[in-house]
């Protein structure tokens, strides 16, 4: 950067976490207890690590820790073992347990229960560790800091005698170098280098590791650049007159404002020399050596992303409709849409990942307790309890972000169970639930939606709402106890009482007329279908199929074979969400009121900003093709939600960029699938503090601007830029000795999105430090 910038990625680590405490660790996989572990956190906040007497040191990388739980008892199946562990400390085992939840995706989570001696210690560690996670900025540390992280991990993963095994070091570099070469480099540095040798941690300093790294992975790419700047001579330093033009012509973006980002000059280059040059004689001569040049290029000053934009930097006082909102589809599913497993944990993981709009498909529970459930109805998915989901949402909604959360209900419940839903939201969420509109922003036509800043730590419900006069009358009758809650006794079904029938999300196969009233609240008629086949069929094969459906549901969490899935899909018929809304639930809906979309002209005439509509991706694509400017203008005023088409039974995702281009706020994706679409979503929302809200560009918010994303010159007054990307080299790309290559794609407006494949050559058998040195990949017109 032209001006000095200090990247504050670290979260201060409390002293008591650095000093450590004694915990017992329960290993759920082996069902064994590792007693008296000394658990610590390093001063940088990279790792939670522990070691017990006679065992190897182990680590959990904090950047991979999704959550810290308190009060989650370890899964100990043997009552005797449970009792023995419980009596070892003061207080219940449940509240003495701090559980570390970690994983590389949102589905495959590893749980590490740490059992403290007393409740006070567990509470203190829970609060301390919660401060450190999640830290998304730590995913953007520079190469030099990454090297320190690699070194520290080696120092912490000691053997039972507390020393670093040489084998650990050879494994770290095995993806690009032979074991023999690695051990020889250790010997050259005066360190033990035998296969069975071990190194004292005090002898393996970072400077020693850094020197070792350059022996193993010489930065020939940087050496070539250094020689080029030196005019091909063998001189061992660069001077200020050589460095100034390099920084200005090749490091600085020429489009930057000269006042905010001034050109490099002698004073600025001297700052760089004083910061990165380790040879004091060179510093006195105002020279930069190859080592100093390498340290500079590997620092935060050369980050590929805007580090200052990883904090909240956007204006958060615009109406909600002016933001992209990180959104999830069928949040409860951890796998496929058909025969998939529903999980309360998915709500926790999705919210902790920064999502701000989650979906709850609500159905009547059929057990004796009549508890509402969440599942993908009629699709052979397993069930979870609505109240447990609301509890999970309360606990995790505002850990990662303080910005508002929207609960998108797809409501199939009877009135009696809708009332239970409303009471759970009210009782569990408490003051977090926005039950009434803000006094300063009433629900009136022409009134802008409230901004995220005014809704911090508030949860909004998105559900159909009754007309105000119907809601008021029904609520008064209900509160007086005069309204019959039993749907079976209702004679009149008043569809006209609903503000507007919303397009209920389609099921995996077909759409249903959303104006048809729905009184079907049974989530699993497919089970009855199986029983019917079983009872009536004389065919033994059909009976086996029916039995297998029930067994899969009970034993395997809803997973189906391909044949079973086809059989169920052939009988599948989706029923739209109910229009028979309980007034108590209706009264909790305010700034996110779904209505049936009747056209852009109708929406513009009504000018009701708190009305919103949902479109499946196919419908959305249709509007992009035929009325894209109208869709952009609609999204300036009101919110829209896009969700995957029903045919995506494998929970795959569409590319969200095409809908972001039209200003659609809630582009809902299947978070359980880490495909390209989710990677784009994750990368986009990592900016602005990972708060889940991104302010749309000015021309997509202002009513006096016209924007057509498909136009050759879509943005008035903006000159397209020329962008070239040169892939030089990579470091620590894989822990396996495999061939690697890099693909470069650009996703943006249609004029930006080049269909040509940009791909480097393959560097064989090197996942450690491949050098590509490709010619630049050029994008000639980027808006």
Automatic annotation (TrEMBL):
Q: Which GO terms describe its molecular function?
A: phosphatidylinositol-4,5-bisphosphate phospholipase C activity
> Region annotation Disordered: residue ranges?
504-523, 531-562
* Signal sequence bounds: none
The EC number(s) given in the record are 3.1.4.11
Recorded hits in InterPro entries, A to Z, give: C2_domain_sf, EF-hand-dom_pair, PI-PLC_fam, PLC-beta_PH, PLC-like_Pdiesterase_TIM-brl, PLCB1-4-like_EFh, PLipase_C_PInositol-sp_X_dom, PLipase_C_Pinositol-sp_Y
| SUPFAM superfamilies recorded | C2 domain (Calcium/lipid-binding domain, CaLB), EF-hand, PH domain-like, PLC-like phosphodiesterases
Q: Which Gene3D superfamilies match?
A: 2.30.29.240, C2 domain, EF-hand, Phosphatidylinositol (PI) phosphodiesterase
The enzyme's first-digit EC class, named in words, is hydrolase
**Catalysis: reaction(s):** a 1,2-diacyl-sn-glycero-3-phospho-(1D-myo-inositol-4,5-bisphosphate) + H2O = 1D-myo-inositol 1,4,5-trisphosphate + a 1,2-diacyl-sn-glycerol + H(+)
Instruction: Give UniProt keywords alphabetically.
Output: Hydrolase, Lipid degradation, Lipid metabolism, Transducer
Protein's name according to its UniProt entry:
Phosphoinositide phospholipase C
Source species of the chain: Mytilus coruscus
